[in-house]
Design goal:
Elements: H1 3-9, H2 18-27, E1 29-33, E2 38-40, E3 48-54, E4 56-62, E5 68-75, E6 79-80, H3 82-87, E7 94-97, E8 101-107, H4 108-117, H5 119-142, H6 147-162, E9 164-166, E10 169-173, H7 177-184, H8 188-201, E11 204-207, E12 212-215, H9 218-224
Antiparallel strand pairs: 1-8, 2-7, 3-6, 3-8, 4-5, 4-7, 9-10, 10-12, 11-12
Helix pairs in contact: 1-2, 6-7, 6-9, 7-8
This protein binds adenosine-3',5'-cyclic-monophosphate.
Length: 228
């Protein structure tokens, strides 16, 4: 990967200086995981930061015996694994491949070393971590919203963060309804029902052949999510 691609693809790298980019790329390790594989395990000790080059992962935390909640879906351009390397504690959650994924990892000591050398990178990382905290707060606030509003909010966030603009609307990966339900904190049946309704209204198009969801009427979805 070229340094320009590295800084364009990853918001975390957008303000890093050229030497930082070059050095990080020279030490980055490539990984590929098949669908369903755990990339990180909650409570395990971790010593690397990961970047998502392609595909999707689910951030999942155990709650009580045998059940879990999905906290986020991360995709191309995101990073994860910063928490354990910054506070030197075990991994806070599982991270599971929702599709085949390609990742880059940077060893903890190397990354910490560069944070001290590149204040722009340091600041950018803080900004992105604050953004995650804001999202977590919005999720808490959304808890009391009707299921359709919550689901529209999830779809709009995925579209804003990862959507490819196409003639048919914003295209996102066909996330299994179970995972969509999980991350929205509503039931699978309810999710299926609402997705079908949105499909009937023509606001979304579900393309199972190409594993894609098209957010055809993004404006209406934003309206429903209370974002405009
Ligand atoms: N609420 C969240 N939203 C997005 N990513 C998260 C959230 N909670 C944990 N993560 C990521 O999941 C990772 C699991 O390993 P770490 O605790 O090292 O670092 C964690 C974060 O990068």
């Amino acid at each position: 990967m070229h340094t320009e691609v590295f800084s364009e693809l990853f918001p975390l790298m957008s303000t890093a200086n050229p030497q930082t980019l070059e050095w990080l790329l020279s030490i980055a390790v490539e990984h590929e995981y098949p669908i369903g594989r755990a990339v990180l395990m909650e409570d395990a000790w971790g010593n690397a930061l990961y970047f998502v080059v392609s595909g999707w992962v689910k951030v999942r935390r155990t709650v009580g015996e045998g059940s879990s909640v999905a906290l986020a879906i991360l995709g191309r351009g995101d990073f994860f694994g910063e928490m354990a390397i910054l506070d030197e504690s075990p991994r806070s959650t599982d991270v599971i491949a929702l599709s085949p994924v390609k990742l880059l990892s940077i060893a903890r000591e190397r990354f910490i070393q560069i944070l001290f050398k590149d204040p722009q990178l340091h600041h950018r990382m803080l900004q992105l971590m604050v953004r995650r905290l804001r999202h977590a707060n919005v999720r808490l606030q959304m808890r009391s919203s009707p299921p359709a509003v919550k689901l529209a909010h999830t779809l709009v966030s995925l579209g804003e963060n990862y959507g490819n603009q196409t003639a048919q609307g914003k295209e996102i990966f066909h996330i299994p309804f179970k995972d969509l339900a999980d991350v929205t904190e509503i039931g699978v049946e309810e999710t299926t029902k609402i997705m079908e309704k949105l499909h009937e209204k023509g606001w979304i198009k579900i393309d199972t052949v190409n594993q894609a969801i098209f957010l055809v009427n993004f404006r209406q979805l934003m309206n429903l999510a209370g974002k405009v």
